[in-house]
Input
Amino acid sequence: MVKHQPLQVYEKQVFVSFVTGVYGCRWKRYQRSQDDSSRWECTWFVLLCSSFLLLLFWAYFWLVAQNDINEFNMSVYNHSGEWSDETIPLLASTTIGFSYITFLLMLALFHISLGQQLNLYWVHKIGVLATLLTTISGIVSVDDLWADEWDILLVSLQATAPFLHLGALTTVTAISWLVAGYVVRRERSTFQVVVLLIYTLVLLALYLAPLTFTCPCIMDRHSLTHRPEVIGRRGAPMLAPENTMVSFNRALQHGASSLEADVSISVDGVPFLMRDSTFRRTTDISKVYPSRQYEDASSFNWTEIRSLNAGHWFLESDPYWTANTLTERDRVRIANQSVCSLVDMLRLASRANSSALLDIRRPPPEHPRHRSWFMDTLWAVQKAGISQKRVRTVTWTPDTDRGRVRGLQQGANEKLSIKEIRQRGITSLNLHYSKAHHKDIEEYLANNVSVTVYPVNEPWLYSLLWCSGVPSVSSDAPQVLRKVPYPIWLMSHHAYDFIWITSDLVSIAVVIGIFCYQKWKMSGMQNYNPEQIMLSAVTRRTSREVNIMKEKLIFSDINNGLGSSEELSLYPENGYARYSNSNITR
Output
């Protein structure tokens, strides 16, 4: 009598070893399992997916918020009193965290697709929790310092929604492979039905999502208006110190059609340019007048103001990381800059045949020029020799004072109705991009109200406003917008409808095909009989399912018919299962 001892030879699985080793520190075959994952590990997988989605949202926010990085640093400065680029640690931590979580999620999905049991290593669990808590704390901090910036997400979707939709549709369609593999299993459970229902609802929502999109750049090319004019907001502050003559010159060199400046009034009635309420950030007042560095900028006379240096801070702090691109000649010019007067800026605008937009800060009540600030401004306009029609003001004063500046074009920096605009005699609006809606812009332009949108520093936002019909934008980066001769993307309604419907139909076909294939494959596995499995042992099959069924059959035979003293042995010289005549009795 001959007793056959079944043997099983395993092929090396380098990829599986890498996936399970990095994810769960299970480098050896005996450490791995193809049983269902525990609820605890499934909970960690859900936490990993949640961390990924939160970081994806966080990374997208910072991607579009690059338009307002200077505003964020100003918010931090107003809270802390010290200037520093706080975006560097935020962007660095976001990039590292997103890369790490994405890598772990890919390994987890490979586990599922390969049929391996999830078992996240404890070091990675700490890393996931640390990344999640860091991201949540960052979101809370930004909400506290910069709550208004969340509006940029809704604005950006007007430009990115079609592309985000295609990306999401592709991702969810690809996930159908994993969903189908889980749902069509022989065992039936309520959770499978829940998973299938949730997946179906997500797919349906994605298929219909374009119905809710409002994208100005989905339009007829012939309806596109002229390229919006670019106003140099405080000149070109990324290339030279803000509100200085060098900065305004740079703005004009890079195609700015107008100049925008922040105006304050000195004690002796001289309008000068300064964004902040003090001189601490942009001058060397801490060296010249250390005891007065916290005083209001308008409390100094013009002689004192003129003695301050307004260029050294730019070279030392390098707020936009552009100082290393300056030539030695530019550095010398910047280092010798002083606080600019309104007259000097208007003279430059007059020589360049451009216009000016003035944000005038009214002096405090105790200031000697509190009631005469408008006369000081008019005096500066007349002295500069520029036409009053080319000067617009956004006067930060009650409406009772607007009548005193009849010689200048009066504007407002708030969103108003057409009735209010006519009542106040306003001819232009200076609006934040979050307040400049497409329909409102059309209404303003139809009523001969000029609209300027600020701040616009990124090509995607400039393109979006161009499609919306905005006539002019105020920018800190005219050198960037100069390189945008046409909207980044422009598509007709018919073209987008075709892409939308086609992508939906392709997705439906792929999902149905994947579910049918998984069902057919599982049916084939269920109909596999032992004779087929034993015969297939002499061929080099690499199918994971067939190998699993071989192992189950072998160990089933051991438990049912073989003695406990018989052991499995490996024959590495062959890549397939063999039988040996280990015990021969006559």
The CA atoms of residues 151 and 434 lie 6 Å apart. The chain has 21 helices and eleven strands. The domain at 231-451 is CATH 3.20.20.190 (TIM Barrel).
